[in-house]
Amino acid sequence: MNAVSTPDARLAEVLGALSLACDVAFAFPLEKAMRTCVLGVELGRRHGLAEPVLHDVYYTTLLTYAGCTAFSHEISLLSAGDDIAISNLLIFLDIGEPVDVLTRLLANVGAGRGLAQRSRSIARVIVEGPKSGERHAHALCDVATHVASLVGLSDGVRATLEQICERWDGKGAPRGIAGEALLMPMRVVNVAHVAEIAHHRAGRETAREIVKKRAGGQFDPAIARTFAREGDALFVALDREPLWDAFLDAEPQPHATASSARLDDVALAFARVADLKSVWMLGHST
User: Can you give the pLDDT at residue 3?
Assistant: First the structure.
């Protein structure tokens, strides 16, 4: 009897579905990763980037928060148990403004807890916060690049994922990469990620204002100018429905595929990521 071959699956379909789990882990609205993917590719295309670079933008966006569970335990210890609320707060703050970051953190950490517990959490943030930020960046980068390797993505995607928490002005982590040393896909993803959150939470004008404000700091000013110039068209692309179709159409050619054997690797990668949520669950899914 002849063996029946299993057709390859589009990798975007698999990772797009699994990205919903990352959205949940960060308490983002569902489809946040996919919306950012659409916005990032459209922004990169209007900035004049070549298709191979757009491919790296697409898959870097999908896996940027694949490591979202990597530091959950540590953030939970810092925040009196509410790692999701604190992670969701931090993800939108500009670390280039440390006074604002600290003020917002102190106002929210341990919220709803008793005075003693909240005081301990605030003390931990003040004492351990700076070092925790660097360790957090290491963890996010390490897990995301590991997932990209298991999934079989390109060297370009893996290299870009090592810069998830870096910034144009060099104030990021873990290596303080700055300016032109920051890989182009990451420069685009940085803008798309924050702009998508701002757009979803507060609308188009807020997204424009935040990108403009952070140009030259968190963002490559050239990418920020493209965003300002092409904003209307970018928002039209972002608001296209159904989102799933827009997300799949955004993937540059040729579309990446995964064999049945590779799908097992994808499942294993996300099982490991899920288990990172708690130190007591490591290895459970496997």
Answer: 47
